[in-house]
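Data deposition worksheet. Section B asks for the primary sequence of the deposited chain exactly as it was used as input, without tags or linkers unless they were present during the calculation. Section C holds the resulting structure in token form. Section D is free text for depositor observations; keep each observation to a single sentence. Incomplete worksheets are returned to the depositor.
Section A, Depositor: J.P.
Section B:
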Amino acid sequence: MNRYTVTLTEDEREALCDLTSKGKHHSQQILNALILLNCDKSEWNVNHLTNEEISRILNISMRKIDRVKR
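Section C:
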């Protein structure tokens, strides 16, 4: 599978963090936000996780992670 690199700006990270912690949102939106936050390789993310770790923690497939990153 293709490898995609996710680098989020500080504003994008804040928006995704707000989406996961505030208000009512669809479960898939929250799951996608969590995937992107954990895959982020920018300077603001100190806890970069691999796809395997994200897959195990969130109990989702590796293919879903690649689709969200794309």
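Section D:
The two ends are 11 Å apart (CA to CA).
The chain is about 60% helix and 0% strand.
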